[in-house]
Amino acid sequence: TEEATRLVLEVKTEKGVRATNYTIAVLRSTITSSYQFVIPDAAESVPPASTLTGLMVYNTFGAPARMNPFFFVPQRSQYIATLDFGIDWCWIVASKNDPDSAMELRVNGQDWTALESGIGSSLLPVSNHGWLLLEVRVSSPS
Q: Which of 20, 103, 128, 133 has the most neighbouring CB atoms within 10 Å?
């Protein structure tokens, strides 16, 4: 995916008095509405030091999500993880290739937060529309 764009909607009353502002995050994704990915994957050309060695998504109870593709592949940037209906929370475990690199997690285009390698993230709420956009970023000094 790409960086989120913020759309600010200003709502005014009939007399032109400003009532309130709403901010809407608009994400552009490289996943199509039919869940197909952009080929070739841009991550294929990334140096190994800036990649992951593992990635897994779990539901509230620790059961692994069904992932497509089924197995983790280094230098692949996009996966679809499916949780069972009615699951309200999930968490992610990612492992980085370079021990000196920094790893961050972003949920639904919000702010990036630090993510510890090999340790489960905090519980992430699955929104009412039933999907999350999870992004993991690795920044390597080399």
A: 103
